[in-house]
Specification:
6 helices, globular, 33% helix, 248 residues, alpha/beta, 11 strands, Rossmann fold, two-stranded antiparallel ribbon
Amino acid sequence: MSTDILVVQHIDTVPAGLLGRYLELQGAWLHTWNAAQRSHPPQGEYHGLLVLGGPMQAWDDEHFPHLQRTMTLIRQFHRQHKPVLGICLGAQLIARSFGAAVYANTTPELGFTPLFPVATAAPEPWLQNFPDGMPMLEWHFDTFDLPAGADWLMTSDRCKHQAFRLGSHTYGLQFHPEATPDIFRGWWAFLSNTVKTQSPHLLEEVQQQFDQHWAKADQFTETLAQCWYAQVQAAAQDTPPCSLPILC
């Protein structure tokens, strides 16, 4: 039986990248919906939902009406116990979907940043071998509060909420496990001239950080993909897939 995952992509320069490649190696079929360009996702039956990042703010419904449609999908998959994984903007939309506030972070996180797992009663398999302070790529200006009932999983010094789980199958990650050096270079164009002026060496610094840290980040992304895909497979066996479009 094929295992089909709907991928919500907000902008062409933020694809599923490395995470998508590892999911496909596990056997997943990825169906990408560019939500800003098409009003409805491709019709089909899906077993999991991956919501990617983007340069827009998670609360800017006026300029990006597709954000509301994306949150409807998130709640739909969650209600049906289908695994959901949100990255950066995707994590912020999950938080907002369940009533949590999303707002500007005190300072932006731009570049590889040390992350720290938070002790929980039920540790995640993909975090069991994650060393304290291992750097992962960050590229965001905003943050979020945890939804009611969520389990806090990861943190950093500059941004408290780096990862969370809501229920047993819905996850939000503020950092970018999917990014490759080529994908990152595509994000540079979206930085404001103000930020570029304030940090004139940022591009070179992050490129050097990729040289130092990407091998371990790659290994983590592979582990994350394996663990999350196992949940998608288990859900596919236990319950019917989520038929779309159902944007109500």
